[in-house]
Each structure stands twice: as C-alpha cells, then as structure tokens.
Inverse folding.
C-alpha cells in the first residue's frame, strides 16, 4: 500500500503498510527444513523449521540463531599496528528468534489461527562514523502474540484479529571514550 493510511492503520503508517503473511503448515503431516550459513567476520546463522498438517490443524514452528563477531563500523583513519590496544574494537550482533503459528478449522465455516513470535537481540555499537566506542551496547526483545480468525456466513466473511506486542529496548553507553 502506498501513501498515508493512518486512518485505517494508525499514525505510524505515514509512508505505507507492509502485510506479512506467514507460511502455513502445508499438506504433509510433517515437514522439516534447516538452514546453516557462514560468512566473513565469523558470521553464522542456523535455522530449523517444522511444519505440517493433521486433519483440521496445520502448524509451523521455526527457531533461528544468528551471531556476528563483528567489525567496527567506525572508520579508523589512523594507521595502527595489529597489536595496538587503541585499535577499534569489533562490534558484535546476536539474534535469537522463535516463531509459532497454527490454524484450527473449528468448523466448515470458522478458521482460527493463533500465533506467537519472540526475538531477542544483543549488540555493540560505535559512537559515530569516526569514533569507536568500546562500551556502547544494546539489548532488544520483541514478543508478539495473538490470533486471526475468519467466519464465512453465506457469501460474506467476518474477520477478527487480535495482536499483543511487548517491545523492550535498552541502550547503554558508559562513556564517550
């Protein structure tokens, strides 16, 4: 959706709205998928997903772990020796997440889809483009839970959605050195 939709989607929807539809369970009773990646700066990501469909219920569960030992985003303009204790430190990033949703076909006309999503992030940050900061850290957690449902009545559908979100962020900078 383009443009301001704050009347329909809230005051923060000034530039637009993105609708994310999560994966459904599929047609098999049990599916498994895994992802392992690695990259420079000792970056690695692992993800495991289980999904399936049993009679009137479908489900999807996934967990993810991502870790980056890091690099300094601040540009060190002074040539330093590798052993120099004033060398800019490597900033880290770590993300862990869990996603669960399921669909329950309560009757021929009623579908209920509860969901839970949780993520936790820890990271280190630099003070600016040219300023390293060895003790500027951040933590974030995000819990989202709720359900969506739809009821078919003749040629119409009634949708009921509920979402609870708890977002917590903390950034600590003990010094400016």
């Amino acid at each position: 959706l383009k443009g301001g939709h704050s009347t329909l989607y809230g005051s923060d929807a000034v530039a637009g709205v993105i609708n994310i539809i999560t994966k459904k369970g599929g047609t098999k009773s049990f599916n498994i998928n895994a992802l392992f990646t690695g990259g420079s700066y000792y970056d690695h990501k692992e993800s495991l997903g289980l999904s399936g469909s049993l009679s009137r219920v479908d489900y999807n569960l996934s967990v993810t772990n991502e870790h980056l030992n890091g690099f300094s985003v601040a540009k060190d303009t002074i040539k330093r020796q590798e052993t120099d204790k004033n060398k800019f430190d490597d900033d880290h990033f770590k993300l862990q997440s869990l996603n669960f949703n399921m669909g329950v076909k309560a009757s021929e006309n009623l579908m209920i889809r509860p969901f839970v999503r949780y993520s936790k992030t820890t990271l280190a940050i630099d003070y600016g483009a040219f300023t390293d900061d060895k003790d500027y850290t951040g933590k974030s957690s995000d819990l989202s839970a709720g359900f969506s449902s739809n009821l078919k009545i003749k040629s119409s559908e009634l949708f009921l959605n509920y979402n609870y979100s708890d977002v917590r962020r903390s950034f600590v900078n003990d010094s400016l050195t």
